[in-house]
Amino acid sequence: MSGTLVLVRHGQSEWNLKNLFTGWKDPDLTDQGRAEALAGAKALAETGIKFDIAFTSNLIRAQNTCQIILDEIGQSDLETVKDEAINERDYGDLAGLNKDDARKKWGEEQVHIWRRSYDVPPPGGESLKDTGARVWPYYLTDILPRVLRGEKVLVAAHGNSLRALIMILDRMSKEEILKLNLATGVPIVYTLNPDSTVADKAVLGDMSSAH
Length: 211
Fold this sequence. Notes:
Helix content: 40-55%
CATH superfamily: Phosphoglycerate mutase-like
Strand order of the largest sheet: 3-2-4-1-5-6
Low-confidence stretches: 207-211
Number of strands: 6
Number of domains: 1
Protein name: 2,3-bisphosphoglycerate-dependent phosphoglycerate mutase
Keywords: Gluconeogenesis, Glycolysis, Isomerase
Pathway: Carbohydrate degradation; glycolysis; pyruvate from D-glyceraldehyde 3-phosphate: step 3/5
Order of helices and strands: EHHEHEHHHEHHEEH
Organism: Martelella mediterranea DSM 17316
CATH class: Alpha Beta
Distance between the termini: 29 Å
Function: Catalyzes the interconversion of 2-phosphoglycerate and 3-phosphoglycerate.
Mean pLDDT: 94
Shape: globular
């Protein structure tokens, strides 16, 4: 019995638009972000998929992306679990700063290391490894068992929390995952084998922006 796991990164947020580090801060979607979520929803609707449960973070940009998708596919009232375990990476002292201002303050190279290293966190924040340390146990205890029961599960979350998940699903190395950029609003559909390995993966949208 194979289940389906669909991962969607939230659409553009107000702070993405302003080039700010966001992390656990809670700006809403922009009009473009809502349009991105709706485009992803329409792509999912074309597959005819019906979900058994949805998971999202404690942050409004992911929750609203999730709801836009569920509304579009006719499942507005689906059980939706919200948990900070799949929140975006916490950027600590960088949160709320313009990325250019951060580079002026700490230097281009240091900010690049914080953004793109696997295990070096920004001051007061999390590395991608730290993010994975809370995402992976939650996936194993709360999300994966539903998929392995043959259910269809939607996860609407964030660039880094989803990268942590994709790292284990696609068996990517630390170096490979750092190069992965997830397109906003583009659903990634995994079919899992009974042993939790990936049987099939499809990106519903522009393939070039998903890799």
